[in-house]
Amino acid sequence: MTAATQERMPALYLSHGAPPLADDPVWPGELAAWSAGLPRPKAILVVSAHWEEAPLALGATETVPLVYDFWGFPEHYYQVTYGAPGAPALADSVRKLLRAPGMPVQDVPDRGLDHGAYVPLVEMYPGADVPVLQISMPTLDPVKLMEIGRRLAPLRDEGVLIIGSGFFTHNLAALRQGGIPAWSAEFDAWGRRRSRRGTWTRCWTSPASPRPACSPTRAPSTSPRSSSPWAPRTPPVSSGTRSP
After folding, report:
1. Which positions ≥6 away from 183 have C-beta within 8 Å?
2. Contact indicator for 186, 69 with CB cutoff of 8 Å
3. In this structure, what CATH number is given to the domain that contains residue 111?
4. What are residue 49's phi and psi, to 5 degrees?
5. Can the keyword Cytoplasm be found in this entry's annotation (predicted)?
6. How far, in whole angstroms, is CA 75 from its chain's centroid?
7. How many helices (H) and strands (E) does the chain have?
8. In angstroms, what is the C-alpha Rg of the chain?
9. Is residue 205 in a domain?
10. Beta-carbon neighbour count of residue 27 at 10 Å?
11. Is 86 within the bounds of a domain?
């Protein structure tokens, strides 16, 4: 199959929570069944909200480890492995698409997949047989992020599945309140409406959006190695599929 006749891959946004979702009685099966209907990708490019680093960074391209960037969970969540192959050819394509317009790109060859990336992939492709590359979010500016997406869009015509991953709302302080806060439900409904209308470019500063409460955060680091306010545990090298 040539690039000209190949079906264009979709670009996905996956909203999901912490590693315990793997034990949910419904979510893993639903995600697996839904993803089974997608075209088979040649490679996966994933952007996780858990890796903020500027300039834009390319993660591991050979052996791809996991980053257990969460704390206080039962030990078995730190024993999950996902030995997906690296995607060096995809990394080369990303460099060419971004550097040509003058965007700086760096390599962080020991940076593996954080839980924002591997939690859904374990359910979608449990065989860990699709090459995966994770890249960082170099900015929180939505207009700039949209431009990066436009530059990377041609990869979809080369069999690359592009995934944006991260909880749609992520305010840890709200966990103490219990239940679903009204602003969270409102933001979820607001996002659904925008998705159906395709009007994202007009909504970044919309006063109708409660987004500041939904994902309070700090600006991404410009340090080459300080990519998050959450310091991850030292990741092991993954060489297999999901541990039981």
Report:
1. 210, 213, 214
2. no
3. 3.40.830.10
4. -65, -10
5. no
6. 23
7. 6, 8
8. 18
9. no
10. 16
11. yes
**Which residues, 6 or more positions from 7, have their beta carbon under 8 angstroms from its beta carbon?**
39
The residue among 108, 115, 25 whose CA lies nearest residue 66 is: 115
| Whole-number pLDDT of residue 12 | 95
Task: Copy the structure tokens of residue 34.
Answer: 């839904």
> Other C-beta atoms within 10 Å of 103: how many?
16
Q: Is the pTM of this model over 0.85?
A: no
What are the structure tokens assigned to 202, written together?
């007009």
User: In the chain, how many domains are there?
Assistant: 1
pLDDT per residue as tens, the chain (244 positions): 344 446 899 999 998 878 888 899 999 999 999 999 999 999 999 999 889 999 999 999 998 999 999 988 999 999 999 999 999 999 999 999 998 777 899 999 999 999 999 999 999 999 999 999 999 999 988 889 999 999 999 999 999 999 999 877 766 666 666 677 787 788 888 878 877 887 666 666 555 555 666 665 554 443 333 333 333 433 333 333 333 3
| 133 inside domain | yes
Question: Does residue 194 form part of some domain?
Answer: no
Which residue segment(s) compose the domain that 97 sits in?
11-167
DSSP letters for 75-140: GGGGS----PBP-HHHHHHHHHHHHTTT--EEE-TT--EEHHHHHHHHHH-TT--S-EEEEEE---
According to the model, what pLDDT value does residue 66 have?
Answer: 97
Residue 169 and residue 215 in contact, taking contact as beta carbons nearer than 8 Å? yes
Tokens of 106: 């760096």
Side chain identity at residue 114, one-letter code: D
Which residue carries 């793997």 as its tokens?
Answer: 22
